[in-house]
Structure prediction request, 249 residues.
Amino acid sequence: MIERHLDIPTTDGPMPTFVTAPDGVTGCPAIILYMDLFGPREEMFDFCRRFTEAGFVALLPNLFHRLGSPVFPPANVKGEKPHPDAQAANRATTLDHTRTDTRAIVAALDNGLVGPRADGIGVIGYCMGGRHALAAAVAEPDVYAGLSVHGGRLVDDTVDSPHLLIRHLTVPFHFAFAVDDGTCPEDHQALIRREAAASGPHVTCELYQAAHGWSFPERWRYDREASEAIWQRAIDMFRRAPAAPSPAS
Prediction:
C-alpha cells in the first residue's frame, strides 16, 4: 500500500488530501471519503487504509481548506457539544464548495497526480460528510455509487435543502440513519424516505440501531455491529464499478 498527503489544487487554493492506493496497479476504482465536522484524523485515515486493502484508491480531502484546514478534537463524552469553531466551519462549508472540490479531485485522478487511474468513483460521507457525498453523487458524472452514513443537516427550511437533491440521483445511493439523532431526527428521516421512494429503487434507506457517529472506533458512540454492517454495504455497492476488484470483506 502507498499512502501520502497531497495538496490537490482547487480554484480556492490547495486542498490537503490523504491518499492511499494499492501498490503496483495502473487503474482501479477510487473512493472519496467526506469527513465529519472534526476533520481528517487517524481513525479516518484507517478507513482509507481499509478501502485500499480491499483494492481501491481512497482519498480523504480536508473540506475546511478554505478556512486553513483546521482539525478539531472530537466530542467524546456523552452530551458534550462540538467546539463552536467546528460548528462554524461546518456551516461555512457549502455544497457548492463540495462540487468544486470534487471536480478538483477528479481532475487530479485524471491527470495522474494521485497515481492509479480511477476506474469509476464511489463516494461516502460520514456525519457532516453525508450531505456532501450526496451533492457529489448528483453533480459528478464519474460517480457510480454513494452512501450517507449517519448524515446530518440533510434537511433544512431553505430552497437549497440537501434532501431536494435526492430526486436528481441517477446512481445507487444509500442513507444509513441513526436512532435518536438530533442532526437527522425522525421527521427528517421520513422526508428523506419519501424523496428516496420518489427517486426510485436505486435510492435506499435503513435505520441502524446505533447512535449518531457509530462508525468511529475512537468515539464513545462506536457500535461495531452497525459499523461492520455499513462497511459491508459500502463494499457491496463499490464493487459494482466497471473493472472493479473483488474486495476482501
User: Anything to note?
Assistant: The mean pLDDT is 93. Strands lie at 2-10, 13-21, 27-34, 57-61, 117-126, 143-149, 173-179, 203-211. The two ends are 17 Å apart (CA to CA). The CA atoms of residues 61 and 217 lie 20 Å apart.
